[in-house]
Amino acid sequence: MDTESETPGMRGAVERLSAKPVVFLHTLPRWVLLVAVFALLVVGMWGNGWVGAAGLLVLLVFLTWFAYLNWPALDPSGRVLRVVAMGLLAAFAVAHVVGGF
């Protein structure tokens, strides 16, 4: 393995740990991921209290993970879009917990 081409530091560690899960997700049919995201969003929007918050937080974790992996390749508008989406998911999750939903 060529260690010079690997990304050093935390980013490199996250990329190496993410390699197998990303390959696994890539082997799944596209509709499986779409259904999973939609199901988490439905649970998050219609669930009450911690159930709704949990659905949104799981979705937030995956979105944050993918955003972190893709961050260097994103243009500024793509970065802003992902940050806004993560902020909205976090705000909705907090609103579920505190009873704002």
TrEMBL record:
Gene source species: Actinomadura fulvescens
Lineage: Bacteria, Bacillati, Actinomycetota, Actinomycetes, Streptosporangiales
Keyword field: Membrane, Transmembrane, Transmembrane helix
Bilayer-crossing regions: 21-43, 49-68, 80-99
Record's protein name: Uncharacterized protein
Pfam families, per the entry: DUF6703
Protein origin, superkingdom: Bacteria
